[in-house]
Amino acid sequence: MTTTTETTEKLPLAALLALAMTGFICIMTETLPAGLLPEISTGLDVSPALAGQTITAYAIGSLIAAIPLTVATQGWRRRRVLLATILGFLFFNSLTALSPNYTLTLFARFAAGAAAGLAWSLLAGYARRMVSPAQQGRAMAVAMIGTPIALSLGVPLGTWLGNLMGWRLAFGLMSGLTLLLIVWVLVKVPDYPGQAKGQRLPIRHVFCMPGIRPILAVVFAWMLAHNILYTYIAPFVAQAGLADRVDLILLVFGSASLIGIWVTGRMVDQSLRHAVLASLAVFALVSVFMGLGSHSAAIQFASIFVWGLTFGGAATLLQTALADTAGVGADAALSMNVVTWNGAIAGGGIAGGILLDTQGAGSLPWAVLMLLLLALAVASLAHRHGFPGGARSTSFPVVGH
After folding, report:
1. Of 81, 171, 205, 275, which cross-links 97 as Cys (Cβ 3.0–4.6 Å)?
2. Which structural domain range is residue 169 located in?
3. Interatomic CA distance for residues 370 and 392, integer angstroms
């Protein structure tokens, strides 16, 4: 009877979509400069390469701040922390829009990245607390939907608006969205207490829990593989004559990711282990097709669509596994996920660049394949702790309400 009640429970969609909107703003704030580098370069009177460091500063802010800010705010009420991160975006995006010089802009981007690091550590745990244990995976899938929407639709739209109105107004528009989000959170998102001192687990203790390190290893290998290919997708698909269709390629990927999130939402609570192994195995197979068919546009479009399907639910699957395994240490574990994930983004840019310069674009899918096979092996071996089989609501120590 309890199971039936839990599985038929309605999700608090308005509250979960507010969390998704927070994730959307995180991704938009991070990636918006990528499409506006010439305008930013001209506006701040720096080279395009220096303008590109506005993205680097954001990533460094997330890497450095995620764990200490999460630890520092563990005792705060959850809505207070959420609003603090959103206010951070409001203030630092506004500062970016108004900044008269490059140094101040870099500081604003670093601080916005710090706000994002805290946000990503918070969102998954927050979504889980809104629902019963059996619904936590589906709730996280809804809360994570802002990421592929931002990547597939938001970034091209932001670039178009920036080119139309100027890059400063584009960042101003982001501030306007955060004002609306603040009202949304105050009206629709429930509040929960933070952790009492006696409940808080040291970061070191959480890191040493059985299953945490294998999950983080899978996170790093999977996301490193993804970012090697995603960062350098333009030179890779140029081999198939698609150099001028990168926007369409990214739209196909993003659209498939949305479908992937929906599929994951249907599977995560009952078959998390199978979903992780299947996603890794299919992505590995796709990388083989991309490598062998690197000069075929049809193969590339089909492969990128399937790749998007496997990636769409990755954040939900991995964060659910981490939070379940960590139990009351979920927030600390998720802050480690932020650091690992952002490290993989940076590593993908570096490793992919080296491969591109030394081995050519054709080498990228084979490097991706090696990393995915490693991730698949680690996930397969973590069958007792980390990625156990069965329905997750009965297999894991879940975070209480």
Report:
1. 171
2. 1-200
3. 29
| pLDDT digit string, tens, across residues 260-302 | 988 988 888 888 999 999 999 999 999 999 999 999 999 999 9
**Can you give the pTM of this predicted structure?**
0.81
394 Cβ contact partners less than 8 Å away, ≥ 6 residues apart: none
Q: Is the Cβ–Cβ distance between 100 and 313 less than 8 Å?
A: no
Positive or negative CA dihedral for 361, 363, 366, 371? negative
As a whole number of angstroms, the distance between CA 80 and CA 4 comes to 34
Averaged pLDDT for residues 325-353: 85
The Cα 22–Cα 220 span in angstroms is 23
Co-location of 183 and 222 in the same domain:
no
The tokens describing 60, both together, are 């460094």
Element (H, E) at 244: none
One domain for residues 205 and 227: yes
Structure tokens at 38: 């010439």
CATH of the domain at 241: 1.20.1250.20
Q: Where are the alpha helices (DSSP H) in 9-101?
A: 13-31, 37-44, 48-72, 78-98
Q: Round to whole Å and give the CA distance between 63 and 343.
A: 7
Distance of CA 326 to the CA centre of its chain: 19
